[in-house]
Structure formats: C-alpha cells, structure tokens
Specification:
Blueprint lengths: L2 E4 L5 E7 L26 E9 L2 E8 L15 E11 L11 E2 L3 E10 L2 E6 L8 E2 L4 E5 L2 E6 L7 E8 L32 E2 L7 H4 L2 E2 L2 E2 L4 H26 L3
Parallel strand pairs: 6-14
Antiparallel strand pairs: 1-2, 2-3, 3-4, 4-11, 5-7, 5-12, 7-8, 8-9, 10-11, 12-13, 12-15
C-alpha cells in the first residue's frame, strides 16, 4: 500500500511514503459504522512524512478527508492515528491495544496516539519496561493533513502507522471490530480482528489483518552498532599514533 519517495540524512525530510486510496476497510471485508456515519475517506491513509525539526520530529499524516462526526474542537474526530517509532534491536513488539504486533524482530520506542480530543506520546526504554509519558505532541490540521510536532530526538527511524475508527464510548477511543452487525459497530469477519482499518503496508498486503503482524516503513539506525564502530575506530587511531611516536623516538 505504499511507495517510497525520499530518504535523506538527518536534516529536513527523512522519510516520505504514499498509500493508495480506497483501502480503509481492513482486509477488505470490514463494515464501517453508520451511526454516526464515518466516511471511508476520513479513515484512509494517503501519505506519511517524517522530518527533523530542531530538537524534535515533525510527522505529517495525510488522510483522504478530514471529518468531524463527534464535533471535536480540533476540527477532526473520525479517526485515531497511531504512530509507533523505533525499529532498533529491542523495544516493544505489541502495538498497544490494536491487536497487532511488529514483524521482523524489531520493536518500537515511541508511541504517538492522535485523536481530535487530545494526543499522547509515550516512550519505553526497553522491552517490558513500563512506558513513560512525555510532553503531548502538538497537532494541527492543514487541509487533509495532520501535522504533528513531537519531542522525539531527530534521526532515522522505522515507523508503524495505522488508522482506526474513533469512538468516545471506548476507554482508549479506539473502536475495535466485532463480528455481530449493528449501526454503531465496526464489523469484521472474524473475532479478534485488528482494530485499524488502514495501515501503511505494501500494496495488496493483508498480512496485518490475517496474521496480526505489521512490517514498518523506513529504516532505523542501530545506534549501538554505530557506537561500537566509533570505538573501534578510536582504538585503531590510538594504535596508529602510538606506533608513529615509537618510530620517532631516538635509539
């Protein structure tokens, strides 16, 4: 469901991907709520962009439309956008309460949840550790885009991005699918189906909805590997300098 557009270094745009229109129905069989009516376009991910901005990251999510069925003061309330950030060794594997987990052994470090009634940012230091709540990200609407500024250290990351149906009648605001039909429910063909109706994933990939695993977009830099490489380089430099000094000493 995506096309990689750009990938640069640590300034400006680090990642930009697009997602096709008309795929906001899970595995294709999800039935969206009719009370209140939620247009599919308002749940449909169209693009995602990550930029380094000062000491933080700017994440921009484009939707097919911005709708406000629950009359949120922010001007949007149809969907819940979840962005998981990380991708290095370790981290959390479960994608919060979405009935999804990460694929490929990678884990997330930061989790942003964006709704029209408030947004949150949490961080985990290591797998199994309780998350720490950070300063809430700022969110503004620009046309059909949600522009999110978050207190995440600038750098290359992997991202898991999902769009779910918002409901104020659930504790976390995420409407989970059920098998029984009804005007106010999100219906899926099997029990325990993932909550998102759209994810950033390769075109035609329904693995997130059939197996419950989601592959990230982007690529994280393994900082531990970089540290070891740097230490190795310093060690080699020290050996070279010591050798040169010994050769310059008079006999």
């Amino acid at each position: 469901m995506l096309t990689l557009l750009t990938a640069t270094l640590l300034t400006g745009t680090l990642l930009s991907v697009t997602d096709p229109a008309g795929d906001a129905r899970g595995d294709g069989g999800y039935v969206l709520p009719r009370r209140p009516p939620v247009p599919e376009a308002a749940l449909d991910l169209r693009s995602f962009q990550a930029e380094a901005r000062g000491s933080g990251m700017r994440l921009t999510v484009e939707l097919g439309a911005v709708e406000n069925p629950w009359q949120a003061p922010s001007g949007f309330s149809a969907n819940v956008t979840d962005i998981f950030v990380g991708g290095g060794v370790g981290g959390e594997r479960e994608l919060a309460d979405l009935r999804l987990s990460t694929a490929g052994g990678q884990g997330w470090t930061y989790h942003l949840r964006v709704t029209g009634f408030g947004s949150t940012l949490v961080q985990v230091a290591e797998a199994g550790a309780p998350p720490v709540t950070l300063t809430a990200p700022s969110v503004r609407v620009e046309g059909t885009r949600l522009v999110i500024d978050a207190a995440i250290a600038p750098g290359p990351y992997a991202y898991w991005v999902t769009s779910s149906v918002y409901s104020p009648l659930t504790p976390a605001g995420v409407l989970r699918p059920v098998t029984a039909p009804g005007p106010a429910v999100l219906q899926a063909g099997r029990a325990g189906a993932p909550a998102p109706v759209d994810v950033l994933a390769p075109a035609g990939d329904v693995t997130p909805f059939t197996r419950g695993t989601l592959t990230p977009v982007g690529r994280a830099r393994d900082r531990r590997a970089l540290t070891l490489t740097a230490l190795g380089g310093l060690g080699l430099l020290a050996v070279v300098l010591a050798t040169l000094r010994s050769r310059r000493r008079p006999a």
